[in-house]
Amino acid sequence: MPETLQQLLDRAAALPCFTAPTRVAPLEGGKTNLNLLVEDGGARFVVRFGADIPEHGILRWNELAVSRAAEAAGIGPAVRHAAPGVMVVDFVEARPLTSGDRADPATIPALADLLRRVHHDVFARLDGPVLSFWVFHILRDYARRLSANDSAHIAILPGLMDQAAALEAAIGPTPTVLGHNDLLPGNILKGDGRFWLIDWEYAGLGSPLFDLGGIASNNGFTGAEELALLAAYHGQPVSDALWRQYTAMKCASLLRETLWSMVSELTSALDFDYGAYTAENLAAFRAAYHAYQSL
């Protein structure tokens, strides 16, 4: 039986990393776990409760290992405690990335640098094994799961998977890096003139294009901002071939978010409107795929 919120609040307060908590309260956000804010000894911490979610490829040992590597690279908050089903990290004084931030001409180059640091610096500091993240394998696995569990979306799956296969063929081979793979606005925090990345649940080895496409599609970048991001990341002007490859991966990122939500409709017990989220992302994917076909 799932724990109540009060039980989780009590369990957080009793964690051995704390001495005498003065406040324990829920935090907003989190589509796959529950986050709590704990104030203890004049400092603030985030307690993340969450079990493995195999249907989404979330294994908490992997999240913990990459979180520690991100801390070592100076990109993620410090990990203060970890045990099965729970991780405690420092609370950082920052806010989610907004569209207004991109009005600052320094933002896009800073985000490109942040992604390079994820792909190389965090990777270099990672200990032990790490999961892979190839979006097209994930899409095929999601489609099989949806078909086997009588999803309401079964009728459109064959068409979506045909489009996924076309995108995979168009992208072809890419470099392999360690990716964050979940660059939603709430996972990109800005504070004190710098960026932090949090929530490494989906981190794994894959294509750098997935993070580039994901940060653009999830944060509403304009075409000019996308070109600026790609040029800053690669350190050179964007060729037509790279633009087409990138645009295909951006479509794949949107399709993955769509099927992720379809699966969550079936499996998640969290209080979140997955049906609306599916519809929103499906519309965004279809628009992006139509634009890709016109290239």
TrEMBL record:
<dbReference type="GO" id="GO:0006646">
    <property type="term" value="P:phosphatidylethanolamine biosynthetic process"/>
</dbReference>
<feature type="domain" description="Aminoglycoside phosphotransferase">
    <location>
        <begin position="24"/>
        <end position="237"/>
    </location>
</feature>
<dbReference type="GO" id="GO:0004305">
    <property type="term" value="F:ethanolamine kinase activity"/>
</dbReference>
<dbReference type="InterPro" id="IPR002575">
    <property type="entry name" value="Aminoglycoside_PTrfase"/>
</dbReference>
<keyword id="KW-0808">Transferase</keyword>
<dbReference type="GO" id="GO:0005737">
    <property type="term" value="C:cytoplasm"/>
</dbReference>
<dbReference type="Pfam" id="PF01636">
    <property type="entry name" value="APH"/>
</dbReference>
<dbReference type="InterPro" id="IPR011009">
    <property type="entry name" value="Kinase-like_dom_sf"/>
</dbReference>
<keyword id="KW-0418">Kinase</keyword>
<protein>
    <submittedName>
        <fullName>Choline kinase</fullName>
    </submittedName>
</protein>
